[in-house]
């Protein structure tokens, strides 16, 4: 069976993930998922996650917008 699956990278740490967890459409490795769960909103590291997801969603919105504009 040929797998054409491109390497999926963790949204947070950007490492290749063989079996990512999908959180709201974003691939996250199990290590970062653990960190994400363990990180509270008061944690300084929390902003980093939020920033990453925000950036990701912004990219999604931009991609959706450009494909709509083409039609
Ligand atoms: Zn990760």
Topology:
Blueprint: E1 8-9, E2 16-17, E3 21-23, E4 26-28, H1 30-38, H2 44-70
Antiparallel strand pairs: 1-2, 3-4
This protein binds zinc ion.
Tell me the fraction of residues in β-strands, as a range. 5-15%
Number of helices: 2
Q: What value does the Rg take, in angstroms?
A: 14 Å
SSE order, one letter for each helix or strand: EEEEHH
Total strands: the figure is 4
User: Biggest sheet, strands in spatial order?
Assistant: 1-2
> Biggest β-sheet: count, sense, barrel?
2 strands, antiparallel
Q: Cα distance, first to last residue?
A: 35 Å
Ligand species: zinc ion
Uncertain runs = none
Mean pLDDT: 85
Q: Which structural class do the helices and strands define?
A: alpha+beta
Net shape: flat
Percentage of helical residues? 40-55%
Number of domains: 1
């Amino acid at each position: 069976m040929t797998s054409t699956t491109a390497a999926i990278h963790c949204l947070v740490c950007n490492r290749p993930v063989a079996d990512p967890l999908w959180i709201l459409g974003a691939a996250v490795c199990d290590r970062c998922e653990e960190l994400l769960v363990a990180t509270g909103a008061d944690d300084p590291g929390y902003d980093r996650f939020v920033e990453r997801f925000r950036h990701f969603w912004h990219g999604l919105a931009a991609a959706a917008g450009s494909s709509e504009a083409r039609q």
